[in-house]
Write a structure and sequence with these properties.
6-stranded mixed β-sheet, Rossmann fold, 6 helices, 2 domains, alpha/beta, single chain
């Protein structure tokens, strides 16, 4: 099994800690002693898991079928996850500008993958229109990075499209680039499969 580094950045309040906690919890980063310690400390929310690991100086890690991922603060991780809040009214324009700035100035240099996660889709009732608007905003990101780039909708709180697509919203698992003006960055795969 290969160990890779991942850094998770994005908008303030976009759900980065919730995403880390969800990945640790759902993708095998918790062992029984750690789970017992979380329960003893009254930790019940995914964002609290990420904070607990950080406070305890424990590595934040999770697994995909072929790799182990360690959350890292490096400027050059193997994978960058950029988290966007789908509920923000500017269709991700400020977030897209911030991402482009970090990449173009060299403050962010993913080695393998850049994954733009449109989070909190559950709070938009999985609105395809909102997702399309945000995809259009981020569609030029691929031109400023050499990394493989993907854009996917998720709900870190509910766990939708982390390991499997939400069944209530079939459009998520059947996304085609032709739906998004040929934007090849859009993926129908859940996050764990994009990382694998």
């Amino acid at each position: 099994m290969v160990t890779k580094s991942v850094q998770i950045l994005g908008d303030a309040g976009a759900g980065k800690s919730t995403l880390i906690g969800r990945l640790i919890y759902e993708c095998g980063g918790l062992e029984l002693p750690q789970l017992e310690k979380l329960e003893r400390n009254g930790i019940r929310e995914f964002a609290q898991i990420a904070n607990f690991y950080e406070n305890e100086h424990m590595p934040q890690l999770f697994y995909t079928p072929s790799s182990q991922y360690v959350v890292d603060e490096s400027k050059t991780p193997d994978v960058f996850l950029w988290v966007v809040d789908a509920t923000v009214s500017d269709s991700g324009r400020a977030s897209s500008h911030n991402l482009a700035s970090l990449i173009s100035t060299g403050h962010m240099r993913p080695q393998d993958n850049l994954v733009v996660l449109i989070n909190k889709m559950d709070l938009t009732d999985w609105s395809l229109r909102i997702f399309e608007e945000i995809v259009r905003t981020f569609s030029t990101v691929n031109s400023i990075t050499e990394s493989k780039t993907s854009i996917i909708p998720i709900s870190a709180t509910r766990g939708d499209n982390i390991v499997e697509a939400p069944k209530e919203y079939p459009w998520v698992g059947s996304i085609l680039p032709s739906q998004f003006a040929g934007c090849e960055l859009v993926s129908a795969k859940p996050l764990a499969y994009i990382l694998d």
